[in-house]
Write a structure and sequence with these properties.
92 residues; alpha+beta; three-stranded antiparallel beta sheet
């Protein structure tokens, strides 16, 4: 299991144990984007839709659902989908 996946599972387990709702895919992927690119700003424009503002570049929209579906298949598919998303958001 990847470190990201382990941390995600631990955080979700902790929140459920504390009686709180686990974070949404929108929140998790927003955190992953900002963690990789600290100068980017991510806004949830609609459930399942992220608008990523990148300094000096046009904003880009990320659809969360396809990435979430890959993550439900397992850690390898999840890691591949998240890495692909991050590469698409990188400077041209």
């Amino acid at each position: 299991m990847t470190l990201w996946r382990c941390l995600l599972l631990a955080a979700a387990t902790l929140l459920v144990a504390c009686g709180q709702k686990p974070p949404s895919w929108d929140v998790l992927l927003s955190g992953k984007i900002v963690g990789q690119y600290p100068t980017y700003t991510v806004k949830v424009t609609a459930p399942g839709q992220l608008s990523v503002e990148r300094p000096g570049m046009p904003p880009q929209t990320v659809s969360v659902e396809p990435i979430a579906q890959h993550c439900l298949r397992g850690p390898r598919d999840c890691g591949d989908a998240v890495e692909k998303m991050l590469l698409l958001l990188r400077d041209p």
